[in-house]
Amino acid sequence: MGLGLLRAVRSRSGHVASLSRVKPGCAMRPVLDFIEDRISDPLRLTDLARTIDMSPFHFTRVFKTEIGLSPSKYLARRRVERARDLIQESSLPLAEIAFRTGFSSQSHMTNRMKAELGFTPGELRKG
Hints:
The protein has helices at 2-9, 29-37, 45-50, 56-67, 71-89, 94-100, 106-117, 121-126. It is an all-alpha fold. Mean pLDDT is 85; it is low at 1-17.
């Protein structure tokens, strides 16, 4: 199951693809849905592991094998992706977008987006 899921989740460039490419029967699907539903909340590893009745240690290993990233890196990437989408699709202030996507501040969101995507939220909004 692990290799098949990795093929489904990873893009050709080796980066983890968006949630929409994860197979419906994926063992991590409840966790991924939990993350999507609560992306603006502070999420702890124990909360994620509890969604599928695993110890945090075992959960971390299985998640990384199945998804290709650690839970924290996956969460950070999903927050950046969600913020990117909101910046492109809305005129919400950047501080509000940062809040809605679970970043501690607008500057935190800016730093993460610059690291992940190579550009800042302001640059993205300007086009």
